[in-house]
């Protein structure tokens, strides 16, 4: 049997992580480099010359005299935690295929569960912001799925209470390999919801392969070609080779969520899906995920805790 190069790649060891990001000074230097890749630029006047107010960890523009922090206007904004704690949280979220619960993350970081939850969700928010506007191209496998435990009595299946519907789509290469993944919660499996998903997530060049669920024909609203396939139901439908990669992705996602988390609030499902999507789309180079995620964090807008708790997002 051929070895899976993705699963067996070296990744970023804890020793190497400590060498690169083990001190507060190292983490701060990385943040500054990622935020100002071409050198300091004042957010007010665009000036490039500055002086450092070292006692307050600020940069002062030499032109307009405005003082700014390297973390101002980013997901890091207003944090009271050391940056090295943030970077260690980023390490655990990117290097673990199955994800990590806020309880376990808190234990590893030495912080309270509520603090770990905040860290995790802010990082997930940056992941969601980073991939939110990227569209799939070429051949795309698409399928419907739900998250949530079964409830005794009442309706079963797609419309059952307590379940969160979402759509999974996998872009495949010319030689039939999975390239990129999109996971989006939807209001329901309706034509309107699928149309909105397609307009936001699919390039008009796409050829979309789906099962016979009627709502999927609305991918044509985004200019995509649609190739429905009647699969029937049961195990045979899951094994249909036309949907090999989307079914594999869904199986991995559900196994990871069921194995790692006791429960996920419906309103926070988009961030958990964004975390799996982010890792999948960068799975060929685990070691580079920290700087790439760092860039996503310094370019994403701030997300105050009160908004983090309330946020509702649909695809």
Automatic annotation (TrEMBL):
<dbReference type="InterPro" id="IPR024445">
    <property type="entry name" value="Tnp_ISXO2-like"/>
</dbReference>
<dbReference type="Pfam" id="PF12762">
    <property type="entry name" value="DDE_Tnp_IS1595"/>
</dbReference>
<protein>
    <submittedName>
        <fullName>IS1595 family transposase</fullName>
    </submittedName>
</protein>
<dbReference type="Pfam" id="PF12760">
    <property type="entry name" value="Zn_ribbon_IS1595"/>
</dbReference>
<feature type="domain" description="ISXO2-like transposase">
    <location>
        <begin position="135"/>
        <end position="281"/>
    </location>
</feature>
<dbReference type="InterPro" id="IPR024442">
    <property type="entry name" value="Transposase_Zn_ribbon"/>
</dbReference>
């Amino acid at each position: 049997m051929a070895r899976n190069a993705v699963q067996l790649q070296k990744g970023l060891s804890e020793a190497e992580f400590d060498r690169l990001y083990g001190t507060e000074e190292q983490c701060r230097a990385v943040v500054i480099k990622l935020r100002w890749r071409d050198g300091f630029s004042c957010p007010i006047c665009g000036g490039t010359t500055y002086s450092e107010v070292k006692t307050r960890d600020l940069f002062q523009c030499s032109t307009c005299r405005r003082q700014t922090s390297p973390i101002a206007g980013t997901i890091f904004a207003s944090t009271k935690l050391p940056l090295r704690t943030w970077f260690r949280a980023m390490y655990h979220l990117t290097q673990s295929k199955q994800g990590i619960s806020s309880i376990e993350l808190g234990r590893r970081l030495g912080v309270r569960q509520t603090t770990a939850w905040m860290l995790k969700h802010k990082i997930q928010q940056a992941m969601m912001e980073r991939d939110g506007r990227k569209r799939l191209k070429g051949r795309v496998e698409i399928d419907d799925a739900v998250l949530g435990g079964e409830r005794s009595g009442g309706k079963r299946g797609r419309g059952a209470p307590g379940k969160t519907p979402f759509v999974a789509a996998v872009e495949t290469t010319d030689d039939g390999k999975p390239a990129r993944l999109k996971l989006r919660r939807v209001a329901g499996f309706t034509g309107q919801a699928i149309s909105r998903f397609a307009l936001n997530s699919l390039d008009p060049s796409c050829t979309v392969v789906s099962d016979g669920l009627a709502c999927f024909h609305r991918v044509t609203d985004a200019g995509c070609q649609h190739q429905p396939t009647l699969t029937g139901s049961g195990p045979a439908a899951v094994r249909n080779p036309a949907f090999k990669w989307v079914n594999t992705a869904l199986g991995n996602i559900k196994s990871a969520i069921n194995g790692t988390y006791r429960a996920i609030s419906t309103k926070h499902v988009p961030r958990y899906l964004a975390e799996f999507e982010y890792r999948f789309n960068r799975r060929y180079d685990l070691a580079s995920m920290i700087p790439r995620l760092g860039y996503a964090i310094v370019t994403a807008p701030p997300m105050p805790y009160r908004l983090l708790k309330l946020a509702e997002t649909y695809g």
